[in-house]
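User: Run a structure prediction on this.
Assistant: Running it now.
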Amino acid sequence: MVPAVIVLSVFALILFVVAASSFKIISPYQRGVVEELGRYKETRDPGLRFIMPFIQRMRIVDMREQVIDVPPQEVITSDNVVVSVDAVIYYEPTDPQRLLYNVAQFQLAVTKLAQTNMRNVIGDLSLDDALTSRDTLNTELRTILDDATDKWGVRVVRVEIQRIDPPADVMAAMHEQMKAERTRRARVLEADGIREAEIKTAEGSKASAILKAEGIRQQQILEAEGEAEAVQTLAQAERFRQITTAEGEAQAIEQVYGAIHAGDPTNDLIAIKYLETLSAMADGQATKIYLPNDTSGLLSSIAGVGELLRATKEPAEGETVDG
C-alpha cells in the first residue's frame, strides 16, 4: 500500500511540474518564439501562454533597445596617423524570428562589423577631418550597420563615436598648433582693436578740428558782421553829425547875414572890420600869408578907407582952429 502511495505521489509531482512548465509568462517588452519539434511554429505576444510539453519550446526575445560597446581599436587615417577609436551602438530588435535564426552571435557580429566599417570610414579622412566630423561619421556608420543588420531582424538606432585619440606626439603637436593659432588670433584681435582705436581717435580729432574750424569761422563771421554793423552805425552817426553841423552852420550864417542886414552897416565900419581882419592875419604864427591875386581891389579898398579917414579928420581940425 505504501509503495503505491509513493508512486502516485511521484507521478502527481511529475504531472504538476510538467503542467507548470507548460505555462509561460511573456513580459510586455518581450516576444515568445515557439518551436515545435525543432521547427519554427509562431511568435507569441506578451501574456500567459500555454505550450505543449515535450513537443513545443518557447524562446524569449527582449525587444527593448540594447547597447553594445565597441572596444577601442587602432585606425590609420588618410594622412598616416594612427588613432585609437571606440564607439557605442544602439539597436532594437524588429523581428524575433530572424534575430534567432539568421545570426548565431548577434552582438559579436555587430561589434566586428562596426570595427571593420570604422576602419574604412575613418581611413578615408584626415586626422583633422576625423576630429571635426563626428556627426558625419556617426550618420555614415549608422547607415552602413542598419543596412547590414536588416536581414538579422534588427534596426540600428544610432552610432556614437566616443573617442578618437591620436598618439601623444601628435597630441602635443596639435596643442602647439592650437596655442600658436590662439596666439595669432589674440594678436590679430589686439591689432584690430588698436587700429579701431586709432581710427576712432583720428575721427574724433577730425571731427573736433572741423567743429573748431567751424566755430572759428562762425566767430569771424559774427565779428565781421558786428564790425560791419558798427561801421555802418558810425557812418550813419557821422553823416547825421555832419548834416546837423551843416544845418547849424547854415542857420548861423543865415542869422549873422540877417543880423548884418538888419543893422545896416556903413562902408567905414566894413572897412574897419576888413583892416582888423588883415591885422589879425598878420599877427598870427603862420609864416605864410596868402593874398588874392587881384590886388587892385585890395588897394582900392585901402585907398577908400584912407579917403574916408581924411574926410573925417579935416572937419575936426577946422573946428579946432576956428575955436
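Strands lie at 23-26, 30-36, 39-44, 47-50, 56-62, 66-76, 82-93, 154-165.
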